[in-house]
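Extended Data, panel c. Modelled sequence:
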Amino acid sequence: MKITIKDASKFVDQEVTIGGWLASKRSSGKIAFLQIRDGSGFIQGVVVKADVGEEIFARAKSVTQETSMYVTGVIQKDERSPFGFELQVKDIEIIHESLDYPITPKAHGPEFLMDNRHLWLRSKRQHAVMKIRNEIIRATYEFFNEEGFVKVDPPILTGSAPEGTSELFATKYFDEDAYLSQSGQLYMEAAAMALGKVFSFGPTFRAEKSKTRRHLIEFWMIEPEMAFIEFKENLEVQEQFVSSIVQSVLKNCQLELNTLGRDTAKLEQIQAPFPRITYDDAIKFLHEQGFEDIQWGDDFGAPHETAIAESYDKPVFITHYPTKIKPFYMQPAPDREEVVLCADLIAPEGYGEIIGGSERIHDQKLLEQRINEHGLSEDAYKWYMELRKYGSVPHSGFGLGLERTVAWISGVEHVRETIPFPRLLNRLYP
């Protein structure tokens, strides 16, 4: 019977066949230990010379790293194994021999590993990160479906660059200029006026020449928009969503978290509600911590966000940023026009902002005023302004960056490990 490794628990004491690759091996006298992977997981195959004979044992000892094979044996419980099971091997059938596999058990530099990303994905660590990413994606769909959201797909190609082209990738759309999307938000606002509560989940692009561990050129965004939802309600949805995906990973990815050496005690504390601090109070706090360079009206950098986050054991909302440093579409606070009803959600442990969100301007005249103040094209925004012309309502939304969230939950340092094939400032290969 052919099975996958993840289903091994269902076949204890039964003879099965697993199609897989050799991740690594070691031998001790007349026993060989094969670490076998099949994409669904890793299992140790134990080959005893007295049980399999000379030919099979010689095959086990000579098989090379990443050789593909069918391994037949009996599944047995093994309390010493992180997986909990092992395979008592009876037969090995080589499918394709792998020679001179470049990624060996020795240490390799990050550039070498990135050049071989197509192969590095096979490693146990990268496998664990990708499984956690997949669980976050699965939990995202589950959360929004259960909360009555409709999935809507905004376009990746846009016909204008109304906020300027400095961080956009330009391309040709037949005989017109086009740009890769930085965000689906504006289109999601239109969708919310049609469907009430919506979310998108897709790639976005930033032509930002940043080399930090938090930045990618191409990354994936989860962007909900909600009609009739105001600022405080928007924060509640965000903290419920983040709590939900963290708890889903804790429930379904314990093996992967253990593989990465993640301190799960810190994740277990991630339950709504989350603390909130205003921008004003954040500035005061930073001054008390010795950050004299930051002044009211400045945006926060990574050191500032980290200092604030270190005061909490949960993600923290920083709210009510100055109007002048935030996008034109954010609703001003009713009692203070110099700040807007927005919040950034800062993850603990130095991982920075994972969500940016706000209540959106729903008054047509105010939106027109903001567009003019920012020197934007009214023609480019004609359709967007019409959303306020025909039955406008208060509405809010946010965007969560998937890769930063994966990095935080899995505990890896650099976002380049959280996407299968990262696009960085100096990397378009493989």
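The chain has two domains: 2-96, 118-417. This feature is highlighted in the accompanying rendering.
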